[in-house]
Automatic annotation (TrEMBL):
<dbReference type="InterPro" id="IPR007387">
    <property type="entry name" value="TRAP_DctQ"/>
</dbReference>
<feature type="transmembrane region" description="Helical">
    <location>
        <begin position="123"/>
        <end position="144"/>
    </location>
</feature>
<keyword id="KW-1003">Cell membrane</keyword>
<dbReference type="GO" id="GO:0015740">
    <property type="term" value="P:C4-dicarboxylate transport"/>
</dbReference>
<feature type="domain" description="Tripartite ATP-independent periplasmic transporters DctQ component">
    <location>
        <begin position="22"/>
        <end position="149"/>
    </location>
</feature>
<keyword id="KW-1133">Transmembrane helix</keyword>
<keyword id="KW-0812">Transmembrane</keyword>
<dbReference type="GO" id="GO:0005886">
    <property type="term" value="C:plasma membrane"/>
</dbReference>
<keyword id="KW-0813">Transport</keyword>
<dbReference type="GO" id="GO:0022857">
    <property type="term" value="F:transmembrane transporter activity"/>
</dbReference>
<comment type="subunit">
    <text>The complex comprises the extracytoplasmic solute receptor protein and the two transmembrane proteins.</text>
</comment>
<feature type="transmembrane region" description="Helical">
    <location>
        <begin position="45"/>
        <end position="63"/>
    </location>
</feature>
<keyword id="KW-0472">Membrane</keyword>
<keyword id="KW-0997">Cell inner membrane</keyword>
<feature type="transmembrane region" description="Helical">
    <location>
        <begin position="84"/>
        <end position="103"/>
    </location>
</feature>
<comment type="function">
    <text>Part of the tripartite ATP-independent periplasmic (TRAP) transport system.</text>
</comment>
<protein>
    <recommendedName>
        <fullName>TRAP transporter small permease protein</fullName>
    </recommendedName>
</protein>
Amino acid sequence: MINRILDRLEETLIITFMAAATLVTFSAVMMRYLGGSGISWAQELTIYLFIWMAKFGAAYGVRTGIHIGVDFVVNAVRPSIRRLLIIAAMSLGVIFTGVIAFFGGRWVIFIYGTGQISPDLEWPMWIIYLAIPFGSGLMCYRFIQAMMLFFRSGHIHTHTYGEEEDREIDVIHEQEVRS
């Protein structure tokens, strides 16, 4: 249940950030094209929206199996070694994203203490930097989820298209509900 809510929240945030960035950019260009001065803070907001979108998008990529991976070596070795390589890769993913989330959290605390604000929007920078611990923390959680799925079933998330994707997601959620 909590995973389904987290899945929808993740997807909603990604869509919202992307749509907002597109709308802000389009509006700024149209205002400038129509002879106005444009929106002075549009570029800064668009950059921040894309940063947040990318951090949550990376977690989504791990969850759905669309994250870029080099699997040539993994697919070329025998199954016993393949299992070790997959576990090692996922473990490194957990460690790396966990470390980034931890130090990202420390960075947010540091920036909060400095009172820095963004140049055009004049927003507190610590809020903008929250993308690092939130996005990396979620990505770490997704790596842990993927590793647990691998331990339970021997399968890793793979991305398929259309109806197959829907069936795969349903199977994964059914497995999560059972456990």
